[in-house]
Design brief:
Number of strands: 8
Shape: globular
Distance between the termini: 17 Å
Largest sheet: 8 strands, mixed
Helix content: 25-40%
Number of helices: 10
Low-confidence stretches: 86-98
Length: 282
């Protein structure tokens, strides 16, 4: 892309392991020489957004994710380091099934390039979370970055909620799965990346209760995004083919990246078309 063109902002959507497809979009923007001027992210999208805002390239994010997630022993070791530090911590809030501390897990898995505070990022980042008792979207963009990312990724029934500034916060995807609306007026071209996916009939027996819970959440988030798109749209909306994967399929990183590789060239074509459209309008 030639210099002096329009500015770009990117909204990275939530979707658990399906969000590994964001890597292809980041690499495509790198190939085009595009450095976003603003970012927003929900859940896994908040993690990816923090990586970009920290100055990591798509290749660096790609290599880091593969170095960790493609090796079961590496994942097991990091999960061991994320275990509760004491029995008191393990029982904090009561003994509950599958209520892991997302903050401890992120401490074990986040790349060292990601700083502790929003103010140390090279690109402004907005992270979404859901204020459980406040009944509204929480947009976090100052102070402690790690707790904001943890709150955004705190999937109910899997991770414990995060307490930040006196508020009980859970997964940002509950209220805003693809937060492109936060970026309007922040750049000439806004890109939204939807990696929610939808439940797929794989011909097996009926889904179990856990699969139904995650699938119902996907349908809810798709409904929210559809309603938003009726009111406002990003200049570019990307939807990688991620529906064959579940939210916690992180160990399937090779399959996720292989199946979604086409989104890289799709991103380049969409950016080129949007760029030409903006130039004609000027």
């Amino acid at each position: 892309m030639k210099p002096g063109g329009p500015s770009f902002a990117v909204a990275f959507g939530g979707g658990g392991a399906r969000g590994l497809a964001h890597i292809h979009v980041i690499e495509a923007l790198d190939d085009l020489g595009i450095r976003p001027v603003a970012l927003a992210g929900s859940s896994i999208g908040a993690i990816m957004g923090a990586g970009v805002a920290s100055g990591m390239t798509g290749r660096e994010i790609h290599d880091f994710c593969r170095s960790v997630l493609s090796r079961r022993t590496e994942v097991a070791g990091r999960m061991w380091r994320a275990r509760p530090g004491s029995m008191a911590e393990a029982l904090a809030g009561g003994l509950r099934f599958s209520q892991f501390s997302i903050e401890r897990i992120l401490d074990a898995f986040l790349p060292p390039d990601i700083p502790k505070d929003f103010e140390d990022l090279g690109i402004p980042l907005q992270v979404t979370a859901t204020d459980y008792y406040g009944h509204h979207l929480a947009v976090l963009d100052t102070g402690d970055l790690r707790s904001a990312i943890a709150a955004s990724a705190a999937i109910p029934a899997v991770f414990r909620p995060v307490v930040r500034d006196g508020r009980l916060l859970i997964d940002g995807g509950i209220y805003n799965p693809v937060p492109f609306d936060l970026l309007h007026a922040k750049a000439d071209i806004v890109i939204g990346i939807d990696v929610v996916g939808a439940p797929q009939d794989d011909g097996r027996n009926r889904p179990n209760s856990i699969e139904l819970m995650f699938g119902a959440t996907q349908l809810m988030m798709q409904s929210i995004t559809a309603a938003k798109l009726k009111m406002t749209r990003p200049d570019i909306l990307l939807r990688p083919p991620v529906s064959n994967f579940r939210a916690l399929d992180f160990l399937k990183i090779d399959a996720v990246l292989a199946q979604t590789a086409s989104i890289k060239e799709e991103t380049k074509r969409a950016v080129d078309a949007a760029w030409r459209s903006k130039e004609k309008a000027l």
